[in-house]
Amino acid sequence: MTTRRLFVRTLFTGTAVSVLAAAQSGCRPAAEPAAPVGANIPQLKAAGAVVVAAGSQKTTIKIRCLKCGFLSEEIEIDTPKAGQPYTQAWTCPKCGHKQTVTIELDA
């Protein structure tokens, strides 16, 4: 076992050794967070839809039929502002059920 370690140390140097040692022990290196939690990401409340992704400018949703459960393709909309919810009249292409979809900021 010690000869293998000596060979690895002579073969690899610096960070490669630490990455290899971490891989052998089953430990993952710590991942850096992409962005702070809650940084300009609005909390949305949806009625008749599912919020797929929310950003400060654009939001991606899928509309779900309340009668048959049909799920539409992704739709990109402007992110609703305070006091200005997004509303849309929608008819399910599968069963013909008519519903109103509302997406607003969660208080």
Tags for this model:
single chain; 107 residues; alpha+beta; 3-stranded antiparallel sheet; 2 helices; 20% helix
In short:
The chain is of the alpha+beta class. It has helices spanning 2-11, 15-25, and strands at 44-47, 49-54, 58-63, 75-78, 86-91, 98-105.
Number of strands: 6
Give Rg in angstroms. 25 Å
Find the structural class using helix and strand composition: alpha+beta
Helix proportion of residues, in percent? 10-25%
Arithmetic mean pLDDT: 78
Question: From N to C, what is the helix and strand string?
Answer: HHEEEEEE
Share of residues in strands:
25-35%
State the end-to-end distance: 60 Å
Summed up, the helix count is: 2
Q: Which overall shape is indicated by the principal axes computed on the Cα atoms?
A: elongated
Weakly predicted, low-confidence segments = 31-36
Sheet with the most strands: spatial strand order:
1-6-5
